[in-house]
């Protein structure tokens, strides 16, 4: 039933859903100019290493819940195409996972619950660092599968009602002008978050979000977070936690510096050659220039 819904939704909503994945599997699986280093957190040693890096940055209960969700996901899918231990490498921006087998097995277990995506995963990790005092209703019209996930989630993924509202506000679509000027678009996001009282605690943990411009409606154009993850320092570099999409695996990627992460995200998501507005990246509520 859920797959049928995806097939019949509007072009806008389909575009938004896949934005938390990738634009073109064919283009992303061609050799890139650099190799990514990543883990799918299957083994306890890698989990413990990541947890240790996070232990002084996030509440223990949020760290523990994250790994419980990771293990729950990994226990309910075939893991043959995932990195079995430590970190692996890929010469494509999206490692080649057996998505068909993963999707089928997950759907057999959970016909209504689509899993967690990049937004829900990141929110669960960074929610303690973000405060909100909203003055406006959220535009959650593009969060249609996210909201399904919140309703149909098994116990380990349940989110408190007040946190669900904060999630919708943080990931709300933001009204903007129909122009190709990322500076103005970024300012629109900053203005909206200021109106909603969104503030980020000073921390070495940051939320890195990739913003897209929905121009399908020539008048009421919107900005939305198409992909997001959590960045934090570790062993002389950085680790970036992301959930590629609802059904695709959790990933932790290693980067030498922030510029490397910026280049990775732009290579994945700046794939539109139609002349539309380029995506832009924010670190918390600031421009992320790498």
TrEMBL record:
<feature type="signal peptide">
    <location>
        <begin position="1"/>
        <end position="19"/>
    </location>
</feature>
<dbReference type="Pfam" id="PF14133">
    <property type="entry name" value="DUF4300"/>
</dbReference>
<keyword id="KW-0732">Signal</keyword>
<feature type="domain" description="DUF4300">
    <location>
        <begin position="37"/>
        <end position="286"/>
    </location>
</feature>
<protein>
    <submittedName>
        <fullName>DUF4300 family protein</fullName>
    </submittedName>
</protein>
<dbReference type="InterPro" id="IPR025389">
    <property type="entry name" value="DUF4300"/>
</dbReference>
């Amino acid at each position: 039933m859920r797959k049928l819904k995806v097939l019949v939704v509007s072009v806008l909503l389909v575009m938004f859903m896949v934005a938390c994945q990738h634009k073109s599997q064919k283009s992303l699986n061609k050799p890139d100019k650099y190799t990514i280093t990543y883990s799918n957190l299957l083994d306890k040693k890698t989990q413990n290493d990541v947890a240790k890096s996070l232990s002084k940055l996030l509440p223990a209960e949020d760290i523990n819940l994250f790994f419980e969700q990771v293990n729950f996901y990994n226990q309910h899918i075939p893991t043959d195409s995932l990195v079995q231990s430590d970190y692996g490498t890929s010469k494509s921006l999206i490692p080649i996972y057996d998505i068909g087998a993963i999707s089928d097995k997950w759907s057999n277990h959970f016909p209504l619950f689509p899993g967690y995506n990049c937004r829900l995963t990141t929110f669960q990790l960074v929610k303690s660092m973000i405060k909100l005092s909203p003055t406006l209703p959220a535009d959650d019209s593009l969060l249609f599968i996210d909201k399904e996930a919140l309703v149909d989630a098994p116990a380990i993924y349940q989110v408190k009602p007040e946190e669900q509202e904060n999630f919708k506000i943080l990931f709300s679509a933001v009204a903007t002008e129909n122009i190709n000027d990322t500076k103005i678009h970024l300012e629109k996001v900053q203005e909206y978050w200021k109106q909603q009282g969104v503030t980020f605690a000073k921390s070495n943990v940051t939320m890195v979000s990739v913003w897209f411009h929905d121009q399908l409606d020539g008048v009421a154009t919107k900005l939305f977070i198409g992909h997001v993850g959590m960045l934090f320092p570790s062993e002389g570099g950085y680790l970036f936690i992301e959930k590629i999409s609802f059904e695709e695996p959790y990933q932790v990627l290693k980067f030498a510096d922030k510029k490397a992460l910026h280049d990775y995200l732009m290579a994945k998501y700046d794939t539109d050659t139609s002349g539309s507005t380029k995506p832009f990246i924010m670190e918390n509520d600031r421009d992320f220039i790498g």
